[in-house]
């Protein structure tokens, strides 16, 4: 009976794993067992961080809006409450961009929020 070997398919499988580990440092891209562990862990982190990225951007936008609102004499929560009462439907990303790139428009929004609250 002929002995079955998996030389070529096994090598191709390893090549695919090593390609996924390109750019990793040291043994993480050179040693077979370490490559497997590193790639699987990298997949887990990338899956998790695709979800966390959305949370982190929202936190960044809120920090920016809060800073811009405080420069104009309001807190973030007061500003958002005023925006909701005035029924201005801008999301936090848009507000953050306005605060950075168009301060005059953001000033107008703050004044509108202040007038609705008082």
Automatic annotation (TrEMBL):
Cellular-component GO terms for this entry: ribonucleoprotein complex; ribosome
Annotated TM spans: none
The keyword RNA-binding is assigned to this record: yes
Domain of life: Bacteria
Entry GO MF terms: rRNA binding; structural constituent of ribosome
CDD domains: Ribosomal_L20 (cd07026)
UniProt keyword terms in alphabetical order: Ribonucleoprotein, Ribosomal protein, RNA-binding, rRNA-binding
A single GO BP: translation
Gene3D superfamilies in the cross-refs: 6.10.160.10, Ribosomal protein L20
PROSITE patterns assigned: RIBOSOMAL_L20
Stated role: Binds directly to 23S ribosomal RNA and is necessary for the in vitro assembly process of the 50S ribosomal subunit. It is not involved in the protein synthesizing functions of that subunit.
HAMAP family: Ribosomal_bL20
Similarity annotation: Belongs to the bacterial ribosomal protein bL20 family.
Name this polypeptide is given: Large ribosomal subunit protein bL20
Organism name: Saltatorellus ferox
Lineage: Bacteria, Pseudomonadati, Planctomycetota, Planctomycetia, Planctomycetia incertae sedis
Gene assigned in the entry: rplT
């Amino acid at each position: 009976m002929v002995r079955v070997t998996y030389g070529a398919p096994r090598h191709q499988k390893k090549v695919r794993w090593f390609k996924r580990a390109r750019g990793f440092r040291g043994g993480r891209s050179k040693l077979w067992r370490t490559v497997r562990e590193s790639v699987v862990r990298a997949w887990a982190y990338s899956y998790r961080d695709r979800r966390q990225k959305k949370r982190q951007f929202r936190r960044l936008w809120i920090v920016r809006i809060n800073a811009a609102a405080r420069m104009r004499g309001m807190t973030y929560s007061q500003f958002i409450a005023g925006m909701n009462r005035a029924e201005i439907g801008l999301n936090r990303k848009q507000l953050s961009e306005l605060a950075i790139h168009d301060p005059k428009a953001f000033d107008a929004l703050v004044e509108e929020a202040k007038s609705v609250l008082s």
